[in-house]
Design brief:
The N terminus is likely disordered. Helix 6 runs antiparallel to helix 7 and helix 7 packs antiparallel against helix 8. By secondary structure, the chain is mostly helical. The chain is built from 8 helices and no strands. It is elongated.
Length: 183
């Protein structure tokens, strides 16, 4: 009986410590938990608002910044999402940091910036070289970059050919005008 009484006292002391010293922390956890629930329901704007509330109460909280980035990404606000992931990527030795770098790559990819996407996938792979998704996305980004460069090169060549054809047409017109003047 004495042993259980001391356990109860220890639990009461722990509960008092948690409630009095970390009441502020409980609010940010509630907001983040609410954000997670909204995210799962597909209510990304509500989730983002909840993660922002959590970050107001605890600035620099990596998990809340990461989740806010995920919500913004789902809302197709890729620049804002990348900014949130950037805050987390500073801890580049952690899984969360690696995931943040990967998601920055995804943000660039969605915007059609395949060069920057590839760079961030490479950064992610430097931390977690076994990440199959990052490897796959790197390959895809490099393929898309090559296609984009080939398309740009072809468009430039087409424009040069078009300009050259215009020049030839003008010369033909001048020659025809000269021939008509002579006749």
């Amino acid at each position: 009986m004495k042993k259980s009484f001391s356990n109860i006292c220890a639990l009461c002391a722990a509960a008092f410590f948690l409630c009095s010293g970390n009441a502020f922390a409980m609010g940010e956890l509630f907001d983040a938990s609410k954000g997670n629930s909204e995210y799962k329901k597909g209510k990304f704007e509500n989730a983002a608002a909840d993660y922002r509330k959590a970050l107001e109460k605890k600035p620099g909280w990596d998990a809340a910044s990461f989740n806010l980035g995920n919500s913004l990404f789902r809302m197709e606000k890729y620049d804002d999402a990348a900014a949130e992931y950037e805050k987390v990527s500073n801890d580049a030795s952690s899984k969360l940091g690696s995931d943040a770098l990967y998601n920055i790559g995804n943000s660039f990819f969605r915007k059609g910036d395949y060069m920057n996407a590839a760079e961030f996938y490479k950064k992610s792979l430097r931390i977690n070289c076994k990440d199959k998704d990052a490897k796959h996305n790197l390959e895809l980004a490099l393929k898309k970059l090559k296609e984009q460069q080939e398309k740009d090169k072809q468009e430039k060549q087409d424009q040069q050919n078009k300009n050259q054809d215009k020049g030839q047409d003008k010369n033909q017109d001048k020659n025809q005008d000269k021939n008509q003047d002579k006749g």
